[in-house]
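Async update (no meeting this week)

Hi team, since we skipped the sync, here's where things stand on the single-chain job. The sequence we agreed to prioritize is pasted below, unchanged from the tracker. I ran it this morning and attached the output directly underneath so nobody has to dig for it. Comments welcome in thread, and please keep replies under the output.
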Amino acid sequence: MTHVIYSVLLLQIYNMENVIQVQDIIKASYRLNGIVSESPLQKNLNLSDKFGANVYLKREDLQIVRSYKIRGAYNLMVNLSQEERKKGVVCASAGNHAQGFAYSCHLLGIKGKIYMPTTTPSQKINRVKYLGKEKVTIVLFGDSFDAANAEALLCSQETGMTLVPPFDHQLIIEGQGTVGVEILNQFKGQIDYLFIPIGGGGLSSGVGSFFKKISPETKIIGVEPENADSMKRSVEKGTLVTLDYLDTFVDGAAVKRAGTLNFEICKQVLDDICIVAPGSLCSYILKLYNEDAIVVEPAGVLSIAALDLYADKIKGKNVVCVVSGGNNDIERMPDIKERSLIYEGLKHYFIVQFPQRAGALLEFVSNVLGPNDSITYFEYGTKQKRNSGAALVGIELKNREDYKSLIHRMNTQNFKYTVINKNPTLYNFLI
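Output:
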């Protein structure tokens, strides 16, 4: 890992309340030297062409733990006293922090216990076991990070094991801030926009602190998933907000409440926080895989999906997106493809009333479906003593513009129907 040495005068000029200090992030980068890889900063030609900008990807998905999380976990654990190391460490994580934690336990020879939500993909659980080897014990608890975190905190209080939080700790933030050190070492010139994914806020507060002091002209944009936007709501309200409802699809960034220290920092260093729909993330996951052979998880693609929201502002600019993780379970790909098709307006589900007579389905196929439309799902049960019966029909279009003509044909052919896509409760129950 290369390093930048900054003058004492520069450090004194750029002091900000509650913001992590540059010299502490640089010290962390030395501690991590030889432990983490200096992940590449790669220009992506497809994204650059699409947005008319110079788009660079900071590939933290290429770390040995496939995310930036080892930076914070190791930086905290290497600072523990011998007595603290003997008592062991404990953490809670939906997956990526657990991997950084587990690998740090293995490297430092410290016993660790990891509480993970029961909803954590099996790929991440198996990867944690591999990285931690005999040094870690995994406990599955609760349906969300917050539930697992509460149990980890209780374990720490009862056993004296040191709690290693995923984001809300100065040493964690300093370690994750080293991503910013590398970016500014690697990029020759002025970075106009920096997009950073937000879960609890560790990466954004660390990298944001470094950039705000060393590259103050750079616009720093935090990115959160829809229905998991605790940081944005907190900044807008001026106080920490706990979400009543949390969508856990973007598991690497699904946090009901942002970190206290992270919130104090982010509200100072971030120029904006934007929200991205899960369907958009799914579309970019597929595009990156098909066009660039990059495997990225939903949280890891947050910064890239945000470019759509800034398309007009970034034209002709130098843009960096932090790709935070690549721990994507292959078993999730059918769901990812489905969400992408629905988001892109290419797949639609209906409950259609069919007359209970011969030839009704043939009429639907012949008179309603367009030449490029396909039935991808059909479920129908005949009802006794009824003139009609409901069928659940999934239709995939070649172009989203074909939807209006599909609806027009159903209306003119007098088929009664209910659109399922627009009703999340009904969709989740039926599909």
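Quick observations from my side:
The radius of gyration is 24 Å.
Residues 1-16 have pLDDT under 50 and may be disordered.
Reply here if anything looks off.
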